[in-house]
Amino acid sequence: MKLIFEKSIPGRVSFSLPDDLFEDIKIEDILPADFIEKDKKNLSEVSEVDVVRHFTKLSKYNYGVDDGLYPLGSCTMKYNPRINEKMAALNNFTKAHPFAPTELVQGSLEVMFELNKLLCEITGMDQFTMAPASGAHGELTGILIMRKYFLDQGQNRHKILIPDSAHGTNPASAAMGAFDVVEIKSNENGTVDIDALSKAMDEQTVGLMLTNPNTVGLYDEGIEQIEKIIHGKGGLLYYDGANLNASLGILRPGDTGFDIVHLNLHKTFSTPHGGGGPGSGVIGVKSNLIPYLPTPLVDFNPENNMYIFKEAGTKSIGMIRSFWGNFSVLVKTLCWILSLGPEHLYQASRNSIINANYVLTKLKDYYKPAYDRFCGHECTLTGREYKKYGIKTLQIAKRLMDYGYHPPTIYFPHFEPYADETIMIEPPESEGKEILDSFINVMIKISQEAKENPEILNSAPHVTPVSQTDDVLAVKQAILTYDDEIKNNDKLNYSDENINF
Amino acid sequence: MRYIPSTKEQQEEMLKAIGVTSFKQLIDSIPDSVKLKRKLNIPSALSEFELDDKISMISQKNVNFQKFKPLVGAGAYRHFIPEAQKALLQRQEFWTCYTPYQPELSQGTLQSMFEYQSYIARLTKMEVVVPSIFDGASASAEAILMSLRLTHKNKIIVSTLIHPHYLETIKTYLAPHNIIIEEISSENGLTSLEKLKQSIDNDTACILVQSPNFFGGIESIKTFSEIAHQKDILLIQVITESMSLGLLKSPGDMGADIVVGNTQSFGLELDFGGPHNAFLATRKKYIRQIPGRIAGETTDKNGKRCFVMTFRAREQDIRREKATSNICTNHNLNVIASNIYLSLMGTEGLYQYSLLNAKKAHYFEKKLLETGKFVTKYKYPYFNEFLITYKGKDMERLKKVLIDNGFVPPLLIQKFYSDTPLQNTLLFAITEIFSRNELDSICNLLSQ
User: Fold this and answer.
1) Separation CA A395–CA A458 (nearest Å)
2) Quick check: is B432 in a domain?
3) Which domain holds residue B182?
4) Which of A2, A89, B1, B152 gives A344 a disulfide partner, CB atoms 3.0 to 4.6 angstroms apart?
5) What residue in B sits closest to A25 (Cα-Cα)?
């Protein structure tokens, strides 16, 4: 498809101006010539119709949750309710300036205050900060809280334990906190090896970052021992909330001994993923860690019935972003929790667990599970038996596109001998049985094709706007802007004719 | 429940197919002692119309912000957002998808990232643009971490005239890393070049300066870059008001090595401070050390042009603790929002709008001075944001008059700078949304 720059025609516009352009003020009188660009910055010149058609067409080159099943493991691609979008888009919320005096933004502060209470009850924690912008940003916040907490105790702990099944963000966040990462191997059940953990945990170690259920989709049955080992050495337990969708009303991280949790509001709490964000990675802590939270927190003053911002005090790790949080995401989260209530929050987790186990049961004869046991809200299969037919797991994923599905997460988690060539499927509660049945049938069909007609997998996908992409060429060319492309025009191996309008 | 389609019967069928008689068997691996044995103590479910009522009521506890125009900016600016942009952003294909891991199903997102990278490269005159880091504050911290990786030095120099939240965030991010942070104070509303010259040494990795700065003043980036480059120091320019890029000289032309731009002004709502977005732009030679995701052009198997996420070998899902950053989910929908916004503005529109911002702000300052109630704080070049000192004593009254007449008051700057004499000094931001009549009437209000 053509780029917006290739549709540009000199003289076209899609903006409008008022009559009064303040022509009585001359730019040369108000700003020194040194600071002003001589020529206008060249962007593009298109009409409003051109823009609307361009982006409408671009949107059709995407696949979203509203198009169908999007079973990306560990991402919880559930339905994003329309009413929540409408509520977050109310003018009084969207046009509120972050530095408006608090008496003008009592509604916004109430949203943050009420959401904190609900999240505390759902997770068993004592206080949340709404500041972190994403899961990884929450992890960094949590890591910095752990660091500051131990420094205050006069302890210079420099190691952190992270299971081999953890998301890549865990070790990356730990490294941003200048901690040495000690990887804990999974045992034959796919969960934390208690002996290895016991040996690794010492008084030089701040604690453990754990996802529960973990990224293979398995609840850690040793959670009580894990808690004793970590706390026994004075460490802290950090909960990666990426997989909380398997726990609503079933178990609360706060009750299992976790000291710090982050929640991905864009996963469990239904806020949209936005093609990669914005989400929100709010952090909850137990009462002894509240003084370390980023500043400020929202509080309520009963004397005048006003919500206020409260500075977090001298122990706070400080600010981790500008302003207060990803506010519109918080509104959507509040809406989702209030729409479901206690009964349906539990039902959401219950159905996501049933869905994942159903897919696991139906597919395990075709794609060997990483671990043959019941799973949480996602199941991890492998495509390794198709290697002998010359099929990579990647091609199973690409072939799914031909049948109208977004592929599951592939090649993650990866740790041998159990979890390689992984296909991690997360069918959230917003998918009904008949959708899963069609997906299962397609997966089985693909497994047959892999044996009988591997070429059709290797050349997949066939019906998408583009076919298999050349990732190596992208790095080699390093064409990162339209101006790069213009410069390299004579070297490029495609012509204008095969670019659609 | 309308968001959970499977009926009770279907759920039973699935449990039966799984081979269990009850759901409880599926969660047997959770020790009984940690299971929640009661219902969550939260309000019972609301119907959609009850929810609509409840949340609308809460929103009305805010003032009517459609009418309440802010005279404050300070890192978040109320600009006009064209309706076509808002309508296009409603397309679910843009907002119900995730990170474009599968390029064949994500060309809309990827091409939009590429176009946006192209726009920002032209506005900043840089070569590589990371389209999305959460906001200007976190992107500033990431830029500094990048400069430390590139130089292997252990000291950074930061102007105190960067946004106070950005400075706080930088300190928070750097706390674990044993880095010396030297803060350069100001002189007449601009970062002191004298103090800067005294501070730089061979251990300095970078100088971070905001322009227009937090007081609104336009810094001489060219001079900064000349000073920095004499000692192989990287110059990072931060921009909170991206609208200024439509008029002011490009950071790249003036020698900046890394540019961080908060792009809330490019078609993003104020949203009480977030989610906004920021880009990080730099030179191609530094590409291996950039944080975050970037789109690049390639071809598919049939030779058709297409786009993918590229230079991925820096990222957390591949490099884990050796990654250049932990960033995964970013603010990518706001990349699309700003891409549409810039397409609608176009070459002429962005120029005209930024010109209007500068003219209206200067008109308003002149009118304020004419009331006799205000006095110039600093004589410095500024874009659409400026400091001015109120001669009266009663700041509370001034604030009340503005609020009573439907304006969000300007920022009292003193609270951020306890060691600078800034009593009764206000930071005003004036954008294209104010008409001449409105500006005149605000001056009338303040002259009484």
Assistant:
1) 6
2) yes
3) 83-341
4) B1
5) B359
